[in-house]
């Protein structure tokens, strides 16, 4: 007997960002921008919890990614672009992890983040959430929760608190506004929890 799937309210897409490692001199900013976008690779689209759980285990193991790689899970109709109209007024919660945590811990944190993201019934602010990203770096790994609007502190802080609790984060998480991050290398956090 086949059980019915737990359909999600939105379709979600899993992407892998693998930077082009060949150093190039670009003749224009458009060339650099094009190479950046060519480094994004579609992995899978899922519309149910079961579809996500059925993804190959390798695709859910972010600990296998090398430094400089990213993994994104975004609503299917929202591009991963700060300057896009769906994101320009938004920002992101940043949860930083030391690179000394084990691979299985990092995989579990990402897995719990995705489950929190797609189990939309736990909050009213779900429309404000665009997606999540994990950035694998030499000194510090980051999980980021992107939102579409930074102007309502109560909503933004609630989103941050829900994710912080669900992933068991014990440090201070910070929220940065996309527009500020575009202007400054290290913008001041708009919110902290």
From TrEMBL:
Instruction: Extract one GO BP annotation from the record.
Output: regulation of translation
Cellular-component GO terms for this entry: eukaryotic translation initiation factor 4F complex
Keyword annotations of the record: Initiation factor, Protein biosynthesis, RNA-binding, Translation regulation
Keyword Protein biosynthesis set for record:
yes
Q: Which residues cross the membrane?
A: none
Q: Name one GO molecular function term.
A: RNA 7-methylguanosine cap binding
User: What's the family?
Assistant: Belongs to the eukaryotic initiation factor 4E family.
* Name of the protein in question: Eukaryotic translation initiation factor 4E type 1B-like protein
- Protein's organism: Dinothrombium tinctorium
């Amino acid at each position: 007997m086949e059980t019915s799937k737990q359909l999600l309210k939105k379709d979600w897409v899993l992407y892998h960002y693998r930077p082009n490692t060949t150093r190039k001199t670009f003749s224009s900013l458009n060339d650099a921008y094009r190479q950046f976008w060519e480094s994004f690779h579609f992995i899978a689209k899922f519309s149910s919890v079961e579809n996500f759980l059925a993804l190959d285990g390798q695709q859910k193991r972010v600990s296998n990614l090398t430094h400089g790689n990213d993994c994104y899970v975004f609503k299917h109709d929202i591009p991963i672009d700060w300057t896009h109209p769906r994101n320009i007024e938004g920002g992101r919660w940043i949860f930083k992890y030391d690179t000394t945590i084990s691979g299985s811990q990092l995989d579990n944190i990402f897995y719990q983040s995705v489950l929190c993201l797609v189990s939309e019934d736990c909050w009213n602010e779900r429309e404000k959430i665009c997606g999540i990203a994990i950035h694998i770096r030499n000194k510090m790994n980051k999980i980021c929760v992107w939102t579409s609007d930074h102007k309502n502190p109560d909503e933004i802080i609630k989103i941050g608190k829900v994710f912080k609790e669900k992933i068991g984060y014990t440090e201070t998480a910070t929220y940065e506004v996309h527009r500020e991050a575009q202007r400054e290398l290290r913008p001041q956090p708009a919110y902290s929890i």
